[in-house]
Specification:
Helix content is 37%, strand content 19%. By secondary structure, it is of the alpha/beta class.
Length: 371
């Protein structure tokens, strides 16, 4: 397909790999922040083609994976109520809570509906005025504008029976937390192109300066990712740091200012828990006070007392921090599979464990290209 095949071109891939081999002189550890990039890397086998000096580690940029267990349990509690219609993107339904997931609630008779947009949830609210319709508003900055618009429309249209269970997180705070961690070694980052399409990359410039690291904005196709890796390695080898944009066809430094304005109108920054990682200061969004009437946690205060418990076998938190690979988990492919997941990274369409399982990475790679 035109405009797609050109970013998967075999000859260009070989050329970029050759350029990379000529450039690199020492080991470097790079983190691709986004789970979508992880899946593209594993699906294409790109990680097995790279020079052995490059180690790719997988980051926390999977919104489903980092949605805190407490929020999943709250979602399960809300979805179990007879006076609630719970709406969510489909990939959240299989995410395990402490005791069960949203699919189990649906199977038991709960009114759980898959939607493809928060506007779909608004339509459900219009058609069911006797029920409270709760939308599971998760994601990074990419989905925040649409979710903010849904809240604005609910207020403008007087849809008092609409509420959002908000679990938004932001990338810069996650990079900060990783770089401040004593036992995480990352030399450079591949930033998520879709987040930067909304937010631009100006927020990353102070981080690159503070931690003396290169951050390269990167797309999602193999050629995009190779360009990003090559740019990052060139910066490292030259002793340079800063932000480079290897996804200029979609990303500008300023991003989409209109989308940012909508986010700022509806949300404010807050401390947020990340599943498997813990609380990261000022790393998420919550509804501003003027939109508190649409906050599901405030509307149903009884869910605040929910107790949670994570599987002791799951190491997804270490995977999300780049400290472990999925195939280093003793439960991977055994106790933990897509049918019996212990953590969200095994069921999310952007989860690193799901990528390793789907593409047969059951054993640690010890050799590349027969070397």
């Amino acid at each position: 397909m035109k405009y797609l095949d050109e970013y998967r071109d075999a000859d260009l891939t070989r050329k970029l790999l050759a350029d990379l081999q000529k450039t690199i002189t020492r080991p470097w550890t790079l983190m691709e922040v986004c789970g979508g990039q992880t899946h593209s890397i594993i699906r294409s086998g790109l990680d097995r083609m790279l020079p052995r000096e490059i180690s790719l580690v997988h980051g926390p940029g999977c919104p489903v994976c980092v949605t805190p267990l407490e929020l999943v349990d709250k979602a399960v509690a809300l979805a179990s109520r007879p006076d609630v219609i719970f709406t969510s993107y489909g990939d959240m339904l299989r995410v395990p809570g402490s005791d069960r997931d949203l699919f189990a609630v649906k199977a038991a008779g709960g009114d759980v509906r898959i939607v493809y947009s928060p506007l779909d949830a608004l339509e459900v609210a219009r058609k069911n005025p006797e029920k409270t319709v709760v939308f599971f508003a998760i994601g990074f900055e990419t989905t925040a504008p649409a979710n903010a618009m849904a809240v604005l429309q609910a207020k403008a249209q007087g849809l008092a029976n609409f509420a959002a269970l908000v679990s938004h997180v932001v990338v810069p705070a996650a990079i900060t937390a990783l770089m401040e961690s004593a036992d995480v070694k990352i030399d450079g980052f591949l930033a998520a192109g879709h987040v930067c399409t909304v937010m631009g990359f100006w927020e990353y410039e102070p981080l690159a300066e503070k931690y003396k690291i290169p951050i390269v904005v990167t797309g999602f196709e193999p050629i995009d990712l190779l360009h990003g890796i090559l740019d990052c390695v060139r910066e490292l080898e030259a002793g340079r740091y800063g932000v480079r944009n290897a996804y200029a066809r979609s990303v500008t430094r300023d991003g989409n200012r209109s989308a940012q304005a909508v986010i700022q109108k509806v949300f404010e920054t807050t401390d947020r828990a990340w599943r498997g990682i813990g609380v990261i200061p000022m790393s998420g969004y919550r509804l501003r006070e003027e939109f508190a009437a649409f906050d599901a946690e405030l509307r149903f205060p009884e869910i605040q007392s929910i107790e949670t418990h994570e599987s002791p076998l799951c190491i997804s938190g270490l995977v999300l921090q780049g400290r472990k690979k999925p195939d280093e988990c003793p439960a991977f492919g055994k106790e933990c599979t897509p049918q019996t997941p212990l953590g969200a990274t095994m069921v999310s369409s952007e989860g690193a464990c799901a990528a390793y399982y789907r593409y047969g990475r059951y054993e640690k790679e010890t050799n590349r290209e027969g070397r």
